[in-house]
Amino acid sequence: MYRSPLSAVGGVIVLVVGAFFAVDTVLRGSGPTLWIPLAVIVLVCALAVTLWIRPALAVDPQRILIRNPFRTIEIPWSRVRDITSRYSLEVAADNGRRYSVWAIPMSLRARRKRLHHGGLHDPRSAGLLGGSGRHERQFTPPPQENHADAVARDLREYWAQVRPAPGGGEVRARWFWPAIAVIAGALAMLLLVTVW
Fold this sequence. Notes:
Blueprint: H1 5-28, H2 32-53, E1 56-59, E2 63-67, E3 71-76, E4 80-85, E5 88-93, E6 98-105, H3 108-118, H4 147-162, E7 172-175, H5 177-195
Antiparallel strand pairs: 1-2, 2-3, 3-7, 4-5, 5-6
Helix pairs in contact: 1-2, 2-5
Region (Disordered): 124-146
Transmembrane segments: 6-27, 34-53, 175-195
Organism: Carbonactinospora thermoautotrophica
């Protein structure tokens, strides 16, 4: 299973801190001073679980399973058409859609390196003035492989090994309703307590 260790650790830290403040609030608070902080704590912890802990990517010989914050996507290998890494890891399916993998983002630094490298020309092809290359612009080698690129390469290698048979099921994308319900409930609770 692929996931961001830093995001998972950050989410766990938020949950621990949230539990501490929740206990302190219950012991010390009463009335609005109890319910408003509790609603905020529940909302923050629910967002931490949804955005940082839940996202993951799992593969097996039959499919790719993408767990994004609010959606779960299952893509049979026979339906995969491409695996790339642009702004994040992306899986293209034969239904014409591209599915971003929240758990494997590409850092801003890696994006800048890629854009910078993409803007340069290989001096082996032509010079700046279109001559033989005597006044060629210095060629910058490609940046080192980042995490998203490495995962994309691993998945493409695995995809080549499994050799999926035709068919294999349909692409399925469904909402993760528990997270949506908890976040909506915390927001409703916060709004209700604030209005009262």
